[in-house]
Amino acid sequence: MTIQTQESERRSRHTAGRRGRHRGSDPSENFSRGFATLGQLALNGVQVSARATDLATGTVLFSVDDHVVMPTASIGKVLLLVEVAARLQTGQLSPLALIDRSPEDAVGDSGIWQHLQVPSLPVADLAALVGATSDNLATNVLLRRVGLEAVSARTEALGLTRTALLDLVRDHRGPDDAPQLSIGSANELTWLFSALARGEVVDPPTSQRVISWLSLNSDFSLVSSAFGLDPHSHRSAEHGILVVNKTGTDAGVRSEVGVLRGPRAGVTYAVSMYFDDATLPTRLAVIDGMRTVGLDLLEYVF
Q1: C-alpha distances in angstroms, 229 versus 187, 218, 240, 288?
Q2: CATH of the domain at 36
Q3: For the chain, how many helices (H) and strands (E)?
Q4: For the region Disordered, what residue ranges are annotated (predicted)?
């Protein structure tokens, strides 16, 4: 209860609306490219939710329906990583404890463990795979070990009410399964990543572990495609730019949340799109829109 109260208060302070600031006082002017692109996507039937805040001050730089709960695909795996990191910190889990994969864990799509021969991996390595490649098999194995109920309880303790990991990763979702892997609001997701960056999620060592795993992420296909970084080698600043991010991709879903630091400022951002993924031009328009938001963010920090 104490943890929940403290984290809820921090989240409330961060998510409270404040006047935007970015080379001017009007966010609609300062992030004009992103606003225009997101507006056009919305007119074309794309459900859009986005938010960006200054990392140092919490000032809201721009927001578009940031309270709306959106499907976020693999973004919810961050909540699993928080629970794993917290258990490592308390000694409930050992980073070197080997966990076997089992037939019920099997799943395709993202990740590399499914293509490797090794039948078991240490907890810390599994978490690194989730951070680096959003590894679905590693996610399911870790989730089987810690339990979805524990992840949900941790999420509630953090004060998150519109963000959740709903299920394990499945190749096919039936009528009895959760309709989405995870959901989230841009408001809460920017709070979560800001709190991680400040060492305020559970405690500083736990936050740092999660940030370390996420810093391995190799997916720079969405918002972060605008930052000019090497997706396979970006743990040190290049041209003063440093990013830690997590993406979520599914049919009709594109989502990214991250912390971007530059020579002039730091910013936390979350952008989610939900759309009819029936044609390639529609998908490309969504991806291009997310990159446009990234260009505005880069200008703010650089």
Answers
A1: 26, 10, 11, 17
A2: 3.40.710.10
A3: 10, 10
A4: 1-31
